[in-house]
Structures are given as structure tokens and as C-alpha cells.
Amino acid sequence: MKKILNAPEDYVDEMLAGLVAAHPEHYRLHGESGKVVARAVPGKAGKVGIVTGGGSGHLPVFTGYVGAGLLDACAIGDVFSSPSAEQMADAIRAADSGAGVLRLYGNYGGDVMNFDMAGDLVEFDDIACTTVLLADDVASAPPEEAEKRRGVAGMVYAFKIAGAAAEEGRDLDAVTAVARKAADACRSIGVALGPCTVPQAGRPTFEIAEDEIEMGMGIHGEPGVWRGKLRPADEIAGEMMDRLLADMRPGSGDRVSVMVNSLGATPPEELYILYNVVRARLESAGAAIVMPLVGRYATSMEMSGVSFTLCRLDPETEALLKAPCDCAFWRVG
Amino acid sequence: MTIDRVAVLAGIDRVTAAMERDFEMLNAADGALGDGDLGVTMTRGMRAIVRDAEALPDDLGMAFLACARAFTRSSGSSYGTLLAKGVMAVAKATKGRVEIAPGEVPALAGAARDAMQALGKAELGGKTVLDSLDAVVAATTGKSDPGELADAAARAVDEALDAFRDKPATVGRARIFGERSVGMDDPGMLAMAGIVKALVDRESEEGP
User: Is the reported ipTM for this assembly greater than 0.85?
Assistant: First the structure.
């Protein structure tokens, strides 16, 4: 393992300390655990709160998207480990200003259990909570079992769209409904070229030959749909788009935002090489591309690889996607 | 004989000692089917409960609630959260009470099982901690004599391990190992066996 760190067990605490120190205008730590990040300047009173949470190792997901027009608070666990229910309850308390809190996060067993439990804990504080899960990874289950899919980069769209709706002053039911619409409109797939190393485990999350790739691999190294020889960028992008388009079936006149995302180590140059095929395929399907996002939006530490996310928009979600937001990693407007 | 704050404190001490004793065994069992930290989860969680045990109130509901919260603070492990959820269910059922009769224990164990099943969205029969608890409920329902209850509960968790050892896990994290889990004890069931035997003070098969 070659990583820049001090003690592996201090990895997350030191990362959070640095994040908050570097961006005090965006982030502050909340509560006793040291692992809950909230907006430096809380949203206005009466605004619906939005919280997320999950393991570390995915920056800018999850913590990075705390900010104006985005999330209010986030509970963060060790690398690839769920935060505790108490931390999530602290995040919910930090996000609440009396109008209730939406829990918006990815579909992973541990996170679901802990966020449900956190809801029990804040019942004593009289905070109304709703839940929307992201389950956008098409490689993780077939369409007929779509509710079992894992949540990946599509959550960035859900954070943005729900965050803008909350900022407008909509109530908890309305924010939850539009978050659900955004979550349901996202489809993602990833491809991995090389693994990452979890600091406390000290070894790569999976092994893969120098000349191999794995299509559909999850962001924690969950098995994908096939493993085979590395092939040209156009072929990789073509198969990823085949799989996404087969699942989403965008048609003539549809408006779609697309994210071409690095899982960590893959450079922006290669993302732009892939974007050519993404654009051509969407246009030949008759869809118009809205606000393409190309860069590092949801990562898996230093994993080498990319993910594509398509988010089908309607006039409501398109306006919310284009509304202003501001955090240390992403600014719109 | 009733169960009050003093009895709860004694039970906490026995479970804590049992988890420290089983630390390596639980880590090893979990390592075969998962990430190998169940002993860590259990000892951390029990130490968190012990740290605040002196301050536990006489109201058993509030005392159990404090235990559940202490456990959830200690880690984000799914197993720990499931256990805490079970304890929360017991807390809700005993709110405002300063003592409970032994004859109420089977129903409380059933409430814990149901709450954990709802949180884990799992079926019975999948070779999980739910099957251990279900066996305890089945073996103790209708009993009110403390000695008989304790014997039945301790026997039930061992019999559940025996009954499921040669079946594949079908829910929970161990399910991805499928047939490879045949012949292995489920780590969560092993931990529950240790917890139950410590709670009823039946640490060896022969009884005290």
C-alpha cells in the first residue's frame, strides 16, 4: 500500500479537520462524535432540512455536498463503513429548523438500518422525517428488482434537485416528492480499471490484472457484470451507454443531464475522450443534453475507472438543477 | 423474584464479560463470512453501556433506552444497530416500569425479535440472529418460573445453532457466501447465544 496518511485510524478525523479548516465558509463540525458536518451558515428558519450519510472515501460525496442549495448536514463513517445511528441522529438534529428533515442517501443495507434507527432516536425530539433512497446502479440488479440496486453517483443529482426545492421554501412532502422524482430519473453504471485501498484494511479492495477491466463494478469493489481485456475508450463508452439506454429508453424530445465521473484516479482528459460517445449516443436517441457534468463528483478513493449517470429531466427538475448552489466542490449560478 | 435496575446492571456485567471472553471467537467466525469485526462491535458496544451504567435510572424503559443509545454510539455496524433496535423495543414496552416479572420476558423477547425483523427486512429461517431469538421465544413462552425460563432459553440458543449449522445462509451479509456457509455457525447467532446465556446466567451447558 502506498498512501499519504498518518495513523490509519485517524484518517477520517484528520480529513474532516482539514476540510473544515480549509473551507470554514462552507462547513463546520456538529455534535460530539466529530463526524457530523453541517453548513457553516445554517439554512433559514422554517426551511426543510436535507441530510445524507455514508462511509468516507467518496469525496465530494457525501460531506462535500453540504452547502447552500444542497444538503444541510451529513453523517460520515470510516472509509466504506456506515456512520452510527447516533451520528445520523445528530445530523438530523443539525439539519432541522422546525420544518422536518428529508433523509436522502444511497441504498446500502447498513446505512438503511442506521438511518431507520436514527429516525427512532429523533422521534424523542419531535422531528418529522422522510426518506428517499438512491438506487441508480443498473449493474447491481435487473430492472424487475430495481429497488435492490445500489446508490451511486445519481445521488449528486438528487442532492442538487431536492436541495434547490428546499431552498425555495417548499414543505417536507413537496421536497420529498421531487427528491423521489429525481432519484427515480437517474441511471448509472461504472467500469473499474484498478482498485483502491481502505486505510484500515491496508490492502486493495479487489485484485485485477494489469490488462483487465470490470464492467459494472460497484464503488466499494462489489462484483460487476463481466471482467475482460481492456478495450478502446469508444468501445467501453459504447457498452456503458448501451446498458444505460436499454434501461432508461430516452426518446425523441427528452431532456437529459449526463455525468461522466472519475472514480478517483482516472484523469479528466480520459473523461472528455469518453464524453464524445456519450453525446453522440444520446443525440442519436433524440435526447437533448442539459448541463453535462464532467469531472470528479463521486469517487472511490484512488480507484481507477469511471461512471456514467443519466438523469432524465422535466421542466420542474430542470429548473431546480439549474438553480444556484454553492459548496467547496461545486457551484452553480 | 422480579427484574429491576439491580438485576439489569448484573446482567450487563455478565454480558460484557462474555463478550470479552468471546472476542477472538466472534472475530474469527465473522471473518469467515464477513469483515471479521463482530467481536470488536460487541466489546465496544458493551463497554459503551458499562461506561454509563451507574447513571442508569430506575425506570427500566429509560434504562434500556440509554443502553440502546450507548450501543449505537459505539459503531455503525449493522449487527450492533439491530441489537440496539431490539433493546429499544424492550425499552418502549417497559417505559415507566421499575420491575418486570420473569413471565413477561418471552413477550419482551418477541417484541425485540419483531422490531429487529422489521428493521433488517429479513425473514425467519435465513440463519440469522432472528432465528436464535425466535427459538428463545418459542422455548420460553408460557413459562414463568425463573429457573425453568433460564434453562429453556440457554438450551434454545444452542439448539438453534445446531439446527441451522448445516443450512446455507439466505439473508444478511453471509448470504453472498451461499453454500459455503453450510457447516459454519452464523456469527450473529453465536453472539446471541453468548448474550442469552450470560443474561440468564447459564454460562455452561450443565447450568450453575
Answer: no
Distance from CA of A66 to the nearest CA of B (A): 21
Q: Could you tell me which chain A residue has the CA closest to the CA of B35?
A: A201
Cell matching residue B200: 440468564
* pLDDT of A57 above 70: yes
Q: Which residues of chain B have pLDDT under 70?
A: 172-177, 204-208
Q: Smallest CA–CA separation between A274 and chain B, in Å?
A: 33
Q: With an 8 Å Cβ cutoff, are A113 and B119 in contact?
A: yes
Identity of the residue in B76, B84, B173 whose CB atom sits nearest the CB atom of A82: B76
> What residue ranges do the domains of chain A occupy?
8-184+322-332, 186-318
Active site residues of A: 58, 220
A320-333 burial, b at 16+ Cβ within 10 Å, e below that, comes to bbbbebebbbbeee
- Name the residue ranges covered by the structural domains of chain B: 5-199
* CATH superfamily of this structure's domain A186-318: Dihydroxyacetone kinase; domain 2 (3.30.1180.20)
Tell me which of B81, B83, B88, B92 to substitute to probe the interface with A (most A C-beta atoms closer than 10 Å).
B81
Q: Over the stretch A27-53, which tens digit does the pLDDT of each residue have?
A: 999 998 899 999 999 999 999 999 999
Q: pTM score, two decimals?
A: 0.86
Give the domain A8-184+322-332 fold.
Answer: Rossmann fold (3.40.50)
CATH top-level class of B5-199: mainly alpha
